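Below sits my pick:
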Amino acid sequence: MAGLQRIVCTKSSFGAAVKWNSVAAYQGSLNGINIKPAVGDRKSYSSKPPEYLHHSIVPTMHFQPSLPRLPIPKLEDTRNRYLQSQRVLLDDDHFTKTSKMMEEFIQGEGKELNDELIAMDKKNKHTSYITGPWFDMYLEARDSIVLNYNPYICFNMDSRAEYNNQVVRSTNMIVSAMRFLKTIRAGILEPEVYHLNPAKSDTQSFRKIVRWVPSSLSWYAAYLYKAFPLDMSQYKNLFNSTRIPHQGKDELRIDTSARHILVMRNGHFYTFDVLAEDGTIVPASEVQANLAHILSDNSPTTKHPIGMLTSEERNTWASVRQKLEEAGNAETLKLVDSAVFCLCLDDDAPGLEDPVKLTRAMLHGDGVNRWYDKSFQLIICKDGIASMNFEHAWGDGVAIVRFMNETYKDSTERPAVVPGTTPATIDCSKSVKKLEWNLTPAIKEGIETATKKFNDSTSSLNVKAIENRKLTKGVFKKYNVSPDSMMQLSIQMAYYRLTGQTVATYESCSTAAFKHGRTETLRSATIETKLCSEAFSKSGVTNEEKRKLLQACSDKHNLLTKEAAMGQGWDRHLFALKKLALLSGQSPELFEDPAYKNITHIILSTSTVASPAILLGGFAPVVSDGLGVGYQIGNERSGFNVTAYPQSQDVGAFLECVDSSLNDIYHALTN
């Protein structure tokens, strides 16, 4: 949700060779993160040694070399899709002006830029045309990554209450995370594959056959079985990874030689090894002892929390970091940066009863016990609630959700310690290193400034949530409408009821079916959703008429989903062309058009995440006058977790409109 991609990553499409009727068969998995553990049927593996999650007979990166490349859409198709998205936002006069501007663009500068983009893409067949510009977008952004970029996703609790003890759960999750790390680095993590026909392809016989097909042809062999491998290039960024601030543009840094994790508590920093010198996982009882030792440290919360600096504007943080290094903290920073990951042990217990309190704790917290630059922070509270807060530049939600699925499943089904396990008798004062910092007056002043900015920004964020137990996946499927399309429609209807307007809306769709694919934007505000929103606000419209409008919204949403998943949206294409124009000193009139600026100013940033391992997720708006709309729909309930800055958006009023819209949709479908 970058909100979550913001999180939205969707299950992706298969590539240009896939027939659209095949795509339609799995469209329900396309919107939002909805990825079941790729491990599937455990019979597909050899026995699981304690050091690994499993041992796939198909190498992890077996399909990577033959993945199809992300297509560059035809310029004329981008024009048509762009204007289609604009039509719902513009009146006739402004639409005519924008249409003319777009036509001039594709006949002139746009054509030249597109030819240049195609030529560059042909020279870089190892990657996708969007990878470089997308990394640059994140790393060049100077805003704080807190709220603006880092989302959170919360794990479900262990069903056995006694296993949610903070030390027990932390130990088990660390060990399972290390099993994931070792499994992927050994090349035996099951490849991420979407199985259109699981009975045929999610089988041992399929794996035995496809593993012998050369990697240069393996994707095509899988395709014959209607199995579609997904890009896994981002997985290498999960561990020992961090974002380093620099003036103008940050850096992603990975150091796979490090064997320690970083643990934070009350703003203090600790490290201890989780991998031994021979590469084996440190015994779980020793991990448990080290965690207990850290929790026994009665040092008060630090007066100058260094981690707060990672919430700063990026150029400011780069300047203060340089001062930290000059003050003799370079080696300490290296320990932080190179750590396998960051574990935040929080003393509070937000509970599951209040999603608002939970969101605040996991989305930003108090800033004291966080290091937001790490690829991910595993936050575990006193009551055992566990969550991921992750930096977004290095990758999208597909890798994070796979990690969460595997870690949750392994830690609950194969726990390394149980309640009552006796911690190892070791000298934790030697195995645990508490990091010390040398702080000059200038650094302390920087921390104080960062703290004030952090408190001002996070306190201004409004968070509210609702739950609806009438509308579930089953209800929507019973009436042959896409669950995701109806959730998106309820968002459009709600905003229309609240403001009388239709605004720029973003739903992210993963393009992981392609080599180095990232995401494409699904523009879920359409003529169909606008007509439906208007009709539901009028009297005298029959239920039969409403159902026809609901079906039209569902059909259009499904079409947009297919197009986005196949890399056939307009956002990424125009983004890449604009980037090329800037690099060459050009300023096409199209990108100065107020209509273009308006449609890329995302008022409704939406995302969904669904998995057996996941409770909920959340993110802040992407613009100051927008809404961050996280939602879920399952077999028993649907729900929304929404954020906004109250000076521009009333979250409570919006959610009241969402609830009334959901109820009206339910009434129209069922009566």
Q: What stands out?
A: The chain has a mean pLDDT of 92. The first helix runs from residue 20 to 24. The CA atoms of residues 351 and 358 lie 7 Å apart.
